[in-house]
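Help wanted!
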Amino acid sequence: MLAYYFQLGLRSLRRNPALTALMVMAIGFGVAASMITYSVFRAVSGNPIPDKSAQLFIPQVDAWGPQQNIDGEPVEALGYIDAMALMRAHEAKRQTLLYQVQMSVMPGDDRDLPLNAIGYAVGSDFFAMFEVSFRYGGGWSEQDDDARAADVVISAELNQKVFAGANSVGRTINLGGRDYRVVGVTNHWNPRPRFYDLFSTHGFADESDIYIPFTRALDLQMRPSGRNSCRGSLSFTTWQEYLQSNCVWITPWVELDTPAEVASYRSFLTHYAAGQQRAGRYAWAPNVRLRDVAQWLDYRHVVPPETRISLAVALGFFLICLVNTIGLLLAKFMRRAGEIGVRRALGATRLEIYAQYLTEAGTVGLAGGVLGLLLTALGVAGVGVLFPPQIAQLAQLDVSLVGLTLLAAIVATVLAAFYPAWRAAHVQPAWQLKSS
Amino acid sequence: MNLHFRPILTALRRHKSGTLLIALQIALTLAIVCNALFIIHARLANLSKASGVDESSVFVIANQWAADWSTPQVDAQVQADLLALRRLPAVRDATPATGYPLKGGGWDNFVTLTPEQTQPTTDAAVYTGDANFLDTLGLKLVAGRNFRPDEVMVMGTQQATFSPTAIVSKALADKLFPAGDALGKSFYAMSPMPSTIVGIVDPLHRQGVDQYSNAHAGQALIWPIRSDDSRGLYYIVRAKPGQLAAAMREAPKALLAQSRLRIIDPKDGIQDYATIRHKVYDSDRGMAILMGIICVVLLAITAAGIVGLTSFWVGQRRRQIGVRRALGARQRDILAYFLTENFLISAAGVALGVVLAFAFNLWTVTRFALDRMSLGYVGVGVIVLLLLGQGAVLAPALRASRVSPVEATRSV
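Answered by r_m:
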């Protein structure tokens, strides 16, 4: 019976090609606009580390005080003194500090020009904490941290450029005039948003080329190549003076498995800040935060407002398209009131009328979905025009988006058709027969 | 023309759902279109802001050092580089820099009028350069003088260096000294010592284009400082008129001839201002285009929806129209009937739409700290939608007016 209704639907749709085209286009455009913006939204609002996002925490300590912090919130990074104090206390199972560094890969073999390498100075726990995936080797050990070892983990891309993609573990690479031992090669590891560094990035950046021990970077007095934020009057001229200043540039992370550990770390932070107040370093009461990955992404507004507004506008657009479809379906169905009257008089139940007209609507929805899919594919390919490249490249037309597009189109259209179908099913056969 | 609302309203009561749907569609369309227009206008305003730079002939080289040099070594290399750049036949001038207008984020300092002040008076983007900075960017000096070569200081890696003299943008001068007597006055930009304003330029865009920068639009200062950071610096270069391409080809070769211990990224190490402007306004332009497309398609779909439903109503009422015509109604009475009917529905829709438009705007204001929409956008939206409704209904209404009185005698 459904196949028959489907044929009836097709025939009816052919009868008013303009009206049908209008409905199909409305659904197509509506669903495409929603899906294009949703694909971008989905890409930027995803959880970058789903299985551990509730165990990774970023501790914050207010180093600037109520006079100079922003809206009472502690600044998003730490200065050298607080960062080192948290590490020395070692109150978490795993912990790391990190900051962005920029180095030069010196010429060698057949390369006659140096290469730029951007990456991070990190602790040995970094790799296990953030589930860095490796192609060769792995991270370095805690002993290497203490020994300020000249170890480096490089990206697969840099490994390709320097070592032609071979297993380079144990080999030497010259960074900024000094030799480093390659201990690992990552496997295209670039979680997006880059939750672990939302101080120097907005969450979307190219894959890092290198990771070197934090302790070594400090030994070499490597300046942060990312953001650096200070308050008050600045007068440092040497590295030591810079370390002692109120400038913040280091992001700390700790791994805490249970609520008890979280609570105890939080009270440790408060104790630490209170200690600093007692020591006279801070002239204000403890003001600390301990946010997990999801809270941190939210707090730092990683999803750009453009993305949310676009999605909201596109959904509003889809809603209007549906209202439009309801009106047109109503017109279409009610024009056939006489026909419905005859069918009802000949014994068709209301349920059968429902089935027939909802099937017809479903057909419109399917056609709209197919059009929407084409437009979505077009839109996702051209999304680079609408969004910055770092974000646009994340939008992809995958199986789930294709399915969602078709499903959204059909379900929305059938839902929109309920009211017109209800009106059709309640046509009074006697009244219709009499008037014609 | 004699308009009778009563019979129209009575007739509409018999088409409640259709009427409601058209009104609802108009309301939602108005809400979206007003906000979209508002967003487009705000974004386009960003896009067209003047940078103060002679954009047609200026380009920027991001130069990263690949050597572990001391500050004097870097300084010697920077000076040699600048000499080489300025000697190129296609180049008019060049300056060292730590940032440039429209860079998209960069160095900015709080500014206070006294050293004790804890709450900053404002915030200024900080530019550094030598005595050639103004000429290289093509900035217009509206008061005071340029830097003298002997004022230029050297800034080593991660050193807090401040100059006793500064050139500021007119926006910053006016913010600090609203009386217009900024020249010769001094300020503190997170520095222990004051900087005296020796010159004022106008305009000069900040490095950033984000919300924070827009809140401090155009407020910038220039210090006569040569950046000798061991990590690297920017060279801003101004080509002679019409020789931008040649200068952009020659400059990296000249630099590599000076020393090969540097990295100029082959992908985006050298950018002209067209590229810089294009990149920094990526998201603004994208939003404007997206909103524009949505507006156009939305208006088209709403218009088509009105045409569709009105056509259906005309078809349904052919007999009644015939009766009216037979009873003496003229063609233009029928036309007026449908136009008025649409106007009543549209007016109801628009009334609801105004409320929705402000509600949506309020959401963006509270959620994203966007600006409040001015009444003008809603006014434009209301007029556009009323006209759209009348335009859309015209074709079916004309068809209705041509219904012959004979139809009254036919049974469907």
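OP: Thanks! One thing I noticed: The two ends of chain B are 30 Å apart (CA to CA).
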